[in-house]
Protein: Chlorophyll synthase ChlG
Amino acid sequence: MSATLAPRRGTIAPAALLELLKPITWFAPVWAFGCGVLSAGVPLGRCWPVALLGAVLAGPLLCGASQATNDWFDRHVDAINQPERPIPSGRIPGRWGLAIAIGWSLLALAASWSLGRVVFAAAACGTVLAWCYSAPPLRLKSNGWFGNLAVGVSYEGLSWFAGAAAAAGAMPGERTILLAALYSLATFGIMILNDFKSVGGDTVLRLRSLPVQLGVGRAARLACMAMAVPQVLVIALLLRWQAPIHAGAVGLLLLAQFALMPRLLRAPEREAVRYNATGTSLLVLGMLAAALALRVQG
Structure:
C-alpha cells in the first residue's frame, strides 16, 4: 500500500468496524443470492456449501465493502448529518476508512473467484458499481436516477444472477436473468423510498435525490409504479411459463402492496419507513415465490 493510502496510527474497535460494514444492509443481497440458488434447480444437499459461501460473499463481503466505500466518500457530509458514524467520529481514524474499503473490496473479489468465473464477473461488476456509486468523479448517488438504479442492479440483479451461477456452476438461463432484471427495477422503487428520510438535508446539500428532483408526491408515485410494474411483468412471465400457482402467489402479494400504497402516497416522508417494513417485505416474498417457480420447473 502506498504512503498516501497508509492509515495513520490508531486502534479500531471491532464494534466500529462492524458498524462501518452495516450488517442491517446485508439482508437484501443475501436474500437475492438465495433466490438465485433456488432458481437454479440444483438439489440443496449438493450446493449448500456454495450457498453458504455465497451468502458471506453477497452480504458481509461485497455489501460490506460497498458500505465502507460509501462511508469514506461521505465522511464530510456525515460530519454534518451523522457525526456519530465511525469515520467522522474518529472511531475509525485517519485513512483507515479508505484502507478498509479497498481491502474489503479485494477480499470480496478473491472470495468470488472460488465460486467460478461467472460469479467473479458478477462480483467485479458489483464492485465497480459500488465505487462508481460513491466515489468521484462519477459519484452516481448524487443523482437519484443513476444511483438508485445502480443499487438495484448490484443488490438484487447481480446477487440473484451470481446465486444461480454459483449453484449451477454455469451461466444462468434466460428465465433467471429476466427475473433478476425485473427485480432490479423493482428495487429501484424501494431505493426511492429510502430517500424520503433525508429530503430536507438533500435539499440543503443540493443532492439530486428523486424526491428533491421530482417533489415528494411525484417521487412517491414513481416509487409505487417502479415497484409494481416489474411484479406485473413477473406474473405474466410465470403464467407464460406454466407456473400459475406461483404467479397467483406473486399476484396476491402485489394486491396486498396495492392496499398499503394509498397510505404511503398520502404522507410519503412519514410513511416510507412503515412501507419498507410492510410492502417491501411482501415484494421480497414474491421474489422467493418466483424463484421457487423456476426451481419446480427444473
Remarks:
- Residues 44-73 form the longest helix (30 residues).
